[in-house]
């Protein structure tokens, strides 16, 4: 049986702490189990747990995805509320997530709910899992198929982490006597231990030269459109910004007043990063020059003031700050595509290949990777907003360069 979605988007989800009866009444029309008090209680606790993360859209979506999958599996496969699941059943659920049946897998992202006769109803085309193809495969015309679905190691780790938090919440509410996720001793059969560091995904210095030159040419040819493009590209690499730190969302809207000059005359950019933590990013002289060029184009004073509420990245049309992360992705992708074409025309197709698969986040990786070569890693960590030094250490390649240099001297005919 193909399950229907249970939990709507944050913007359309009433507060389950005060309006659960309304939510349950709407869902009961296509979920008969909600007539049973045990299943109603199960849903209510799950909704309250997820809703507690409404301060961040991305965090809410992650927790909703994992808990909703568990609810759907528990109700439709295990035939019991999640409150009654045992350790061995959680293991069965993890196996199920790794290889779900075809009718639980979609091949495109669709809305969970849609409007019908003025009411929000579950979308029958939605599926708990979605198969994807790589960016390069999609650009080559390949379409995803259900058999291509797979969970990454990071996704499996997230499932364990979120569900463990969920059962911790249930224990605090005296709704569960134990945490069945924490009782799984051999998580290693699901999550592989990484024996070596993964290669940081970044573009090369040559590729970046072509990308930023492309943005500069675009800005010269059509400044009304592409001066903003040029500033976005510089900000993503020069300040290691995530998309969420550049566009406006329910938590914050970056404004020019977030560029701050301290008592020594040094410039910083105040960022609200993951976990609702503020950090200051040191502005290089080049980044400050890029900011001044951008402000000059926008007919603003050369440098910001502390109380300036002008959006850093304005909408193309209308008033206010840009809110679409997809628009930023499209801008970056356009620069990547144009740079790729220029490199191919210059006879460097092999050197250009990474630009066909690169994403916006590669610019952050590239900026950090370059800076750890010359700056103290503690400074880079603070600018990047890494929670631990171990994350910053992943960008330091000195040991690997030395290791490979010594390895190149090995001979296949030892003396």
Describe this structure in words.
The protein is mainly alpha-helical and 415 residues long. It has two domains: 10-189, no CATH class; 205-402, hpI Integrase, Chain A. It is built from 15 helices and seven strands. The protein has helices at residues 16-27, 37-51, 57-78, 87-98, 135-139, 153-172, 205-221, 223-238, 285-297, 325-345, 349-352, 361-371, 377-384, 389-393, 398-407, and strands spanning 105-106, 113-116, 119-122, 129-130, 259-261, 267-273, 277-282. The termini are far apart. Residues 406-415 have a biased composition (Basic residues).
Which helices and strands, and how do they pair?
Blueprint: H1 16-27, H2 37-51, H3 57-78, H4 87-98, E1 105-106, E2 113-116, E3 119-122, E4 129-130, H5 135-139, H6 153-172, H7 205-221, H8 223-238, E5 259-261, E6 267-273, E7 277-282, H9 285-297, H10 325-345, H11 349-352, H12 361-371, H13 377-384, H14 389-393, H15 398-407
Parallel strand pairs: 1-4
Antiparallel strand pairs: 2-3, 5-6, 6-7
Helix pairs in contact: 1-2, 2-3, 3-4, 3-6, 7-8, 7-10, 8-9, 8-12
Region (Disordered): 375-415
Organism: Marinomonas algarum
Protein name: Site-specific integrase
């Amino acid at each position: 049986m193909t399950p229907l979605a249970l939990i709507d988007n944050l913007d359309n989800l009433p507060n389950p702490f005060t309006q659960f009866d309304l939510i349950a009444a709407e869902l009961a029309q296509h979920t008969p189990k909600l007539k049973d008090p045990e299943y109603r209680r199960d849903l209510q606790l799950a909704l309250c747990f997820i809703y507690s993360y409404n301060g961040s859209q991305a965090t809410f979506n992650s927790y909703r995805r994992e808990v909703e999958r568990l609810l759907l599996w528990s109700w439709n496969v295990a035939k019991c509320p999640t409150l009654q699941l045992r350790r061995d059943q959680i293991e069965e659920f993890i196996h199920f997530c790794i290889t779900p049946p075809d009718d639980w897998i979609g091949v495109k992202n669709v809305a969970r709910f849609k409007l019908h006769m003025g009411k929000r109803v579950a979308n029958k085309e939605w599926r708990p899992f979605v198969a994807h193809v790589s960016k390069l495969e999609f650009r080559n015309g390949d379409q995803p198929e259900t058999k291509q679905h797979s969970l990454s190691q990071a996704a499996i780790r997230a499932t364990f982490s979120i569900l463990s938090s969920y059962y911790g919440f249930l224990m605090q509410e005296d709704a569960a006597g134990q945490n069945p996720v924490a009782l799984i001793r051999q998580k290693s059969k699901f999550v592989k231990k990484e024996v070596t560091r993964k290669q940081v995904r970044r573009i090369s210095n040559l590729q970046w030269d072509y990308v930023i030159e492309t943005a500069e040419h675009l800005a010269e040819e059509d400044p009304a459109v592409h001066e903003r493009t040029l500033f976005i590209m510089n900000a993503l690499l020069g300040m290691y910004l995530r998309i969420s730190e550049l566009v406006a969302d329910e938590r914050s809207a970056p404004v020019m007043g977030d560029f701050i000059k301290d008592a020594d005359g040094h410039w910083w950019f105040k960022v609200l990063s993951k976990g609702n933590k503020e950090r200051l990013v040191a502005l290089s002289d080049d980044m400050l020059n890029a900011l001044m060029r951008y402000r000059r184009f926008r007919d603003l004073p050369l440098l910001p003031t502390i109380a300036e509420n002008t959006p850093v990245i304005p909408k193309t049309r209308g008033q206010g700050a840009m809110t679409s992360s997809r628009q930023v992705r499209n801008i970056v992708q356009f620069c990547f595509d144009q740079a790729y074409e220029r490199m191919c025309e210059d006879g460097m197709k092999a050197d250009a290949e990474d630009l066909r698969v690169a994403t916006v986040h590669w610019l952050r990786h590239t900026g950090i990777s370059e800076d750890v070569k010359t700056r103290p890693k503690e400074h880079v960590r603070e600018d990047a907003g890494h929670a631990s030094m171990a994350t910053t250490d992943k960008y330091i390649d000195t040991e690997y360069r030395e290791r490979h240099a010594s390895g190149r001297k090995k001979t296949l005919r030892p003396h």
